[in-house]
Amino acid sequence: MSAGTDPAMGEAAGFWQEFLPADPGPPRGPWTDRYPAAMPDGSRLVLPLRDFGDLAVTGLIANQASFAVCRRLAGWMAEAARPLGAEAVVGLPTLGHVFGPLVAEALGHRNWVAPGYSRKRWYDEALSVPVASSTAPGERRMWLDPRLLPRLAGRRVLLVDDVISTGSSALAGLALLRLAGVVPVGLCVAMAQGDRWLAGWDAAVPVAAAYATPLFRREGTAWVPRPESVPVAVTLPAGQGAAPPPEERPPGQSA
Length: 255
Hints:
Blueprint: E1 34-38, E2 44-51, E3 55-58, H1 67-81, E4 88-91, H2 96-106, E5 128-131, E6 140-143, H3 149-152, E7 157-164, H4 168-179, E8 186-193, E9 207-213, E10 215-219, E11 222-226
Parallel strand pairs: 4-7, 7-8, 8-9
Antiparallel strand pairs: 1-2, 2-3, 3-10, 5-6, 10-11
Helix pairs in contact: 1-2
């Protein structure tokens, strides 16, 4: 099936509002403006494709997703990250704040830590780092409230974000934690988006995710998944294993 003709993928309710029933086999393309990403239980979450010229990526805006979708994603995130034995969760701004408290609660924690982009009167410049992301490229500073340092001291800390794409936001999070004297036990995200982040990532910090998606290359007016770009160096929920490569149809063959 093609994304442009399947009524089940209509935008009436918007993206990220519900999961589609399980569909055996990998998603088939080419795709035009959306992609049904496989979830750990076999269901599909339809994601928009973001056009970057010769490259497209899947999009997830967590604060526009339904509560039900966020809860299920957070549950899978917690399942993937549980082996890391985290004792504290730090959720990165802005959209990591959607999943930070949900993952912390799912792991049995009583609270979480939320760095932010606004500075309070008592904040210390020494606990801040510059940050730019693929979705908000303008540079700003991320701050950590010094009053929350006791929640992190001597504990196994898990960094949480919505997506890892280029890795810039997550690397800023690692830098901020270093200023607090913390080396996290890992990063946990809802979506590992392709493999562009791998080259600059600290291999000593494992990455866990609810699901992973490939990058896409242009083919005429459509997009074709690049199976080799699925990030295999990511821990997914138990039983899912490495993300299966998407099926790619021969050029010119309809889906």
